[in-house]
């Protein structure tokens, strides 16, 4: 061992900062400086910050529906028989104080205030509106969204998880879904893509046959295939998400006769034929009690494109989780705008939350690459506004993220600059910006979140507990802005 150390000593002593270049490859070695004065692990004290965040009593006073079948469950044409009462808010006092703020330019504040006016009237008018939460892997599986949804629905009304994918591939908190093996998933943000880009607003869709647009192939396609999608509430979901009595299926690109049978808890309740004009359509069903387990069985020679489902109450707020693993947020140009405009309108989507940036952080080499990303992301905000012009937009930037370097974990060097540029581009488009990086403690705070069990060992993603704390921080800032708006309204 002594001989090995003596042999390596001069290699270390003369090692350059960037390592040795041998045969065109970089070989890193411990430098003399790092050996004599090793880096010390930096971390933030987040104990007081976390102690201020109250995540208790999320489900207090709420019960789950028994999901009893409606009396008409043997009819092949289901009678939509909701009584119209599911979605009442619990309400409660609102606070205008929070540990963080949503950064708002005058234009962004005006846009958010218009949304608050609609939000304030939802319960009394018994109408619905959707909040679409787009994001990368930080929100996949309904993390963050599930908590934000429960808080908002408790306060303002609403039931159900809202939009869910046609074919889910992530473990999720909000629902349970299974599909027949012949269904395939298509994404605008990675993997297999649709040629006609008609995914719908979730950016993902499912089909049980490949896309065909050649008229001769369509005419010759006569072999009937069967496929199915089954959906039911999840026991791990928050109480509001577990109970829903309105279910809508969104589809497009139906160009061949397609039959659909719907089973509720194993009983056939509805038979139908999808509209085969190739356009975007909705198949709605409603129930007198919580819908329970539903199974959609399709039969056709050529599959329609299933764009997703929405699981809702009768009125109130739907907060839709649209997780896109590996996505940087440059998505809206990859989807058919005509379908999305109609779907946004059908959903009455009045707020879009765009939570991106984290996937790009490890790949930034310099400030120029950050500014290029920010410019591209700003163009996406602009495009989202064109597709959904009445909606307010809030951008949630990346969290703190750490990489292992020199024996310690430290924040990515360009991360604060990324946050500054994303906040700037959001303001340029009159969108709000909530700074998750600063809210959780800023530079080198992720180390403390990991050590506290609030984030995973990848030093990127929150644990479920950490996601609830981060979500409560966002909800507190959202509630504070609503409370301030409410205070100045004329009685």
Number of strands: 21
Helical content band: 25-40%
Per DSSP, the total helix count is 13
For this structure, the CATH topology is Rossmann fold
Residue stretches low in confidence (pLDDT < 50, at least 5 long) are: 61-75
Rg, nearest Å: 25 Å
The percentage of residues in β strands lies in 15-25%
Tell me, briefly, the overall form: globular
CATH superfamily: SGNH hydrolase
Structure description:
The chain has about 500 residues and is an alpha+beta fold. It has a single domain (about 45-60, about 70-485), classed as SGNH hydrolase (Rossmann fold, 3-Layer(aba) Sandwich), CATH 3.40.50. It has 13 helices and 21 strands. It has a 6-stranded mixed beta sheet, sandwiched between helices. It is globular and about 85 Å long.
